Task: structure prediction
Amino acid sequence: MNPVFLKNKTDEEVLNTVDQSGIYQIRAVVEMIIRLKTTLKKNTKATKDFNKNSSKQTQEVINLTKWLLYLTIIIGLLAFLQLLSIFVNK
Result:
């Protein structure tokens, strides 16, 4: 059983090989360590990508909230000016 043969096996099959003794056991353990390391790298990258996108979306929401505040103030001022013009023209 060579290491390439283990790469084609499922995790469960490799773990069953770990239960054996001798060189097969060592190769199976090394294969599982390699798989765990690869999975950890993928998850770390996915987490970093998620955090980057999350920060970007948070900043976009903050910017939209500021624009809503500005527009609300402008509408309030326009309403005040309209009421003011009604009372001045009476």
In short: The chain has a mean pLDDT of 85. The longest helix spans residues 23-89. The CA atoms of residues 56 and 79 lie 35 Å apart.
